[in-house]
Specification:
By secondary structure, this protein is an alpha+beta fold. It has six helices and 14 strands. It has a nine-stranded mixed sheet with strand order 1-2-3-4-5-9-8-7-6, sandwiched between helices. A three-stranded mixed sheet has the order 12-13-14, with helices on both faces. A hairpin with a 2-residue loop joins β10 and β11. The protein is globular and about 65 Å long. The chain starts with a strand and ends with a helix.
Length: about 260
């Protein structure tokens, strides 16, 4: 079985209705996967392999997680002398080990093609990563998934993973919205697994997320919905949700 975290999450909802199902392998595409999610996969798959790849370059990194072991999100670079993987800052200078930066990848095959098309020989997938010794790296989010809350930058993917790691949450993510006083605020939008205890579950969720963010970025509220808005590829529609709710709140305040 091969799929992204979003698509495999949908598959798990079906599998979890049939506890006896056990299949052999699952390949999880993409970074930023929680240890809790890997644990859910191990209930139904004997082998879980996390793979980082792109259509343009192919497989860049991979790691097999054995059942019962803890996944720290570190992936091993594949041994390929024709592949160069770097983590750089906004000035395209090499980031030291342990520092977050922008991923860029170059392969011999693509360098030839890009040179003919007069393009940069580097491919930028738009991911943020940290490199470690022994040719390991960790994808920590998307370059466009950083939220600036009152001068504090947080990684939205990290918050999404915290939200989705709760067994009472079916789906959800965070987003930034301007408050009535013009100050940026962090909010959560979720679909709970049950309609019961939504108020209590919202309080529990706010309390848990608040432990992982600075005081200036503590989430203000939880918007509970019946269906989580996403793109066709399963990505959050943070900006769209933010604008829709801002207009709704301003209209309600105007009519009050």
């Amino acid at each position: 079985v091969l799929g992204s975290p979003f698509h495999l999450s949908e598959l798990l909802k079906q599998f979890e209705s049939y506890q006896s199902i056990k299949t052999k392998n699952v390949i999880l595409m993409g970074g930023g996967v929680t240890n809790e999610f890997v644990g859910r996969l191990h209930k139904f798959f004997e082998s879980v392999t996390v793979t980082y790849a792109s259509t343009e370059i192919g497989v860049v990194g991979t790691r097999e997680i054995k059942n019962g072991s803890t996944f720290d999100n570190k992936i091993n670079l594949v041994p390929n002398k024709n592949l160069i993987f770097e983590v750089v800052d906004q000035n395209e200078k090499y980031c030291p080990l342990g520092k977050v930066g922008i991923v860029r990848i170059k392969s011999h095959e693509n360098s030839v093609i890009y040179a003919k098309e007069k393009k940069s020989e580097w491919f930028y997938p738009g991911d943020l990563a940290v490199r470690y010794k022994d040719n390991k790296f960790k994808i920590v989010g998307r370059a466009n998934d950083s939220l600036n809350i009152n001068g504090t930058t947080i990684n939205a993917i990290d918050i999404d993973n915290i939200i989705q790691s709760n067994d009472f949450v079916e789906d959800g993510y965070c987003f930034m919205m301007e408050g009535v006083d013009g100050i940026s605020e962090l909010h959560l939008i979720v679909k709970f697994t049950s309609d019961e205890n939504q108020e209590l579950d919202s309080e529990k969720l706010l309390e848990k997320v608040s432990k992982f963010v600075p005081e200036t970025a503590i989430p203000k509220s939880v918007f509970v919905v019946n269906s989580i808005p996403r793109t066709n590829t399963g990505k959050p529609t943070r900006h769209k949700i933010s604008k829709l709710l801002e207009r709704k709140i301003k209209k309600e305040n105007h009519n009050a």
